[in-house]
Write a structure and sequence with these properties.
Helix 3 (58-74) packs across helix 4 and helix 5 (110-120) crosses helix 6 (134-142). The chain has helices at residues 3-19, 24-43, 58-74, 87-93, 110-120, 134-142, 166-172, 183-191, 203-213, 219-225, 239-250, 266-275, 288-293, 305-308, 329-332, 348-355, 365-377, 379-395, 399-412; strands spanning 50-55, 79-84, 101-104, 124-128, 147-152, 177-180, 197-199, 230-237, 255-261, 280-282, 296-298, 314-317, 338-340, 359-361. The protein is built from 19 helices and 14 strands. The strands form 2 sheets. Strands 3-2-1-4-5-6-7 form a 7-stranded parallel beta sheet, sandwiched between helices. Strands 10-11-9-8-12-13-14 form a 7-stranded parallel beta sheet, sandwiched between helices.
Amino acid sequence: MNPLYNLGMRAFDAGIGLGALKSEKIKKLRRGQKEALDYLREKIQPGKPYVWIHAASLGEFEQGRPLIEKIRRENPEVKILLTFFSPSGYEVRKNFSEVDAVCYLPLDIKSRVKEFLDIVNPCMAVFVKYEFWGNYLQELKRRGIPTYIISSIFRPSQIFFKPWGAMFRNMLRCYTHVYVQDERSRQLLEGIGVTNVTVAGDTRFDRVTDIMRSCVEIPQAAAFVDDAPVTIVAGSTWPPDEEYLIPYFNSHPELKLIIAPHEVEPKRLDAIERKLTRKSCRLSSATPEEAREADCLIIDGYGKLSSTYSYGDIAYVGGGFGVSIHNINEAAVYGMPVLFGPNYRKFKEAYDLIDVKGAFTFSDNARFVEILDRLLTDKEYLDECGRNAARYIKENLGATDIIYGDIKPLLDTLA
């Protein structure tokens, strides 16, 4: 990469060091990056073929997971290395059983890149959605290692399409093949001379469908919704989301609410309970009988949300009044309409679900009330919107099979 990029990486490295003095999260990142190479020296088996898959964080991991599991299932002789950039991905999935090694990705500094690749010597590299590390990409290309990016999506506002974006356009040309979510992305790339592109779709559709098929029963939730006219499941909520949700719920006795806040520390749970004027209970401490008598069930732990959506009639997905919405496909796959706030511009599925009337967005209370009032009072409309959401997910399955079909010949040579 050019000197300016490398200088930027050195400054970034110094910034991580300073941030580690104040932030526990950045401290974990710093420690993980420093320990990664030693970990790999111990863990990597020389001479064995490794597929290296990199996900920035937990969301990208879930996107790449269907491909990881398919490679493991179809090519058990191939080793898999999974790397993360963010602690929010690594700390949750560091013991993921479908791979052979998991670690942080050393920062994109030339000496570390070469040492990393010397140790791992991957037969293939797969980046998920948004990962453009210039030194890694150039060195992978120089070594002739097939390199892919999957489930990526591009917008005209990105630096690749700006007059001053030549350095970043060169990164794109390092990929052996680019798998994008939509035709618009393919056309944008074609406009800058990147033509080794396939519109494969988004592997998240495959992932949420797998999750739905392996849905785990939650006895308290089953008892809670028994005989309930309509239940909203609100997932990954933040305080701004709850400013709309809770007052509406308090004033509609015909409605039940399951709420799974994004953060579940005691302070957040206490704050939610103080706003409720109807009877509530927490999942971790409630019996099915106690849940049956409550109006609001609070999910006070992690790992339950995807199964919890199966108990809803309407979904609310949080984050739309913050950085961005969370995973709306995770709810839509259960065949119910999805509501979310206005910050969804990075997500194609949000636009698509709104277009097919499987999802709704709002930015003020009047619109929020209008949407929910219609869904609560018009059963036929509620059912139609749910069918629209389920149909959209079903029509977009198959990205994993397309990608795997392309890389299978190379994997077969490693047996």
